[in-house]
User: What shape does this take?
Amino acid sequence: MSYKVAVVGATGNVGREMLEILNERNFPASEVVALASARSAGKEVSFGDQDLKVQDLATYDFKGTDFVFSSPGAKVSAEFAPKAAAAGAIVIDNTSHFRMEPDVPLVVPEVNPQALKNYAKRNIIANPNCSTIQMLVALKPLHDAAKIKRVVVSTYQSVSGAGTAAMDELFNQSRHFFMNNEPKKEIFPKQMAFNIIPQIDKFIESGEDAGMTKEEWKMVVETKKILDAKIEVCANCVRMPVFIGHAEMVNIELKDPLSPKEAMKLWRDAPGVTVIDLDSEMEYVTPAEIAGEDDVFVSRVRADKSVKNGLNFWCVADNMRKGAALNSIQIAETLIKDYL
Assistant: This one.
């Protein structure tokens, strides 16, 4: 069986990646439609050997469309995802808008595919935050084996997570830096080139979460919704002057003992994870080495003796692929395989 597919936000970083991955994985599409705002209508985007002419999202009729892969920004998704779902399409949305709605599945296929059984309540499925996805792919086999009680994660996130304009700002600031010109700040609150910024998204101003950024809050609440509501999470999210790839240093406290060797064996048997041993030629993995890869890469695995049953590891993934586009398409593939 084949399906009519629409990609919303097709001219953006994630939209283009979705089109590339749909082609790479031979997704069973009878037709692929590229959608974006009116200002992008008429432009062309690549889909394998084809060039697709971008259509105006505002005037597009979703009737007859089977899957919508949506990554246009939360406000746009809030308006158009329900319209597409009402027309009969299954919407897999990459924005933050629907993630915490109780009747919308929030899914990482390697972690909680069973959540998809209720997809038809809204015909909308949410793709989690990029930093949450890669962490949970790594945590799932450990949690199944020894039950995670607490997670402390510090992320080192690339600028591509903030979009094309953010990547352009890093490039331009780097160029200006070497020319002794004042770097212009438009996307980031402080200079991004040759710097690190301990803020991703806006700060929460009041309540018990005051002082956290929304990115940190997402990692906390999404982990609870996807993996286990009992897990306590402390997240610290930092933006780095890197174009592609998110890295995380993850510290976990487990209910039951689990040695680094046992953890690595679990990861080697788990879907979507590649383990790099310190004794190997690579020793550990950095974002520059995994751009374009599908897996979550785990390295620098070691015991944490400061707590009972503690474990540390370094976790790296391509945020544009597993952190966004690939996860969305894997959701659709799981639906086709098990629920349609």
